[in-house]
Amino acid sequence: MNPKKVLIVDDEEFVRQLIQIKLKFCGIETVEAGNGVEAIEKAVSERPDLILLDVMMPKMNGFEACQRLKANQETSHIPIIMLTARGDPSAKERGENAGALEYLTKPFSPQKLAERVLEILKEFESRG
User: Fold this and answer.
1) How far apart are CA 95 and CA 80, in angstroms?
2) Is residue 17 a part of any domain in this protein?
């Protein structure tokens, strides 16, 4: 069985590294992107099983990147969890409307995030 792959998209390298360390410890392969434009390119080329997507980023924000990923036939099936410091209900609704499966606010527990990622990967794998 091939290891699952997660695309971590955040403009803060520290956040990407923190998530990467936790996911690798769980046996998950990771790929990184620092903005929304790069996220779309990496999603197409790397074919991740799940995307962790920050909202506030340069070049293209997470909402727009999410919409574009969901509109692209090559990436529309990939579950997306949005991670952001914006916890207001309208931002959460905007994330869900863009196609995100979940919307989690920072700061978050890396352990709980890894557990949720594993749950979603297992759920999507069982769907076939």
Assistant:
1) 10
2) yes
In terms of residue numbers, what domain contains 21? Answer: 5-123
Query: Residue 128 falls within a domain, yes or no?
Result: no
What band does 87 get if pLDDT is binned at 50, 70 and 90?
confident
For the stretch 15-69, pLDDT in tens is 999 999 999 999 999 999 999 999 999 999 999 999 999 999 999 999 999 999 9
Instruction: Return the CATH number at 20.
Output: 3.40.50.2300
pTM, two decimal places = 0.94
* Bridge partner residues of 5 (DSSP): 29
Nearest alpha carbon to residue 84 among 111, 59, 66 = 66
- Rounded alpha-carbon distances, angstroms, from residue 29 to 8, 21, 22, 47, 91: 10, 10, 11, 12, 29
Q: What is d(CA 110, CA 37) in angstroms, rounded to the nearest whole number?
A: 25
With a CB cutoff of 8 Å and minimum separation 6, the contacts of 87 are 105
Both structure tokens of 90: 């309208």
Q: Quick one: DSSP state of residue 76? A: T
